[in-house]
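Appendix C reproduces, verbatim, an entry submitted by the partner laboratory led by Prof. M.T., so that reviewers can inspect both the input and the predicted structure.
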Amino acid sequence: MTQYTETTGAVEVETPYELTALDRCDACGAQAYIRVVVASGELLFCAHHGRKHQEKLSQIAQSWHDESDRLLADDRN
């Protein structure tokens, strides 16, 4: 799992937080695979919208939790 932080950039970490099928993208309602924490709260995105907004949000994100690699794992099964 990849997590992006403001100061260190991309870091591979194990984290106890896991997105579920109940977590939905704030932009389109699809299943969320990316959780972004900003000063005002959290944003959830599908892989598509997470990548679309990553450049701008990474400048203000306190953390970036990305589980989009699960999409590839699901396709292999």
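Residues 21-66 form one domain. Additional entries are available on request from the coordinating office.
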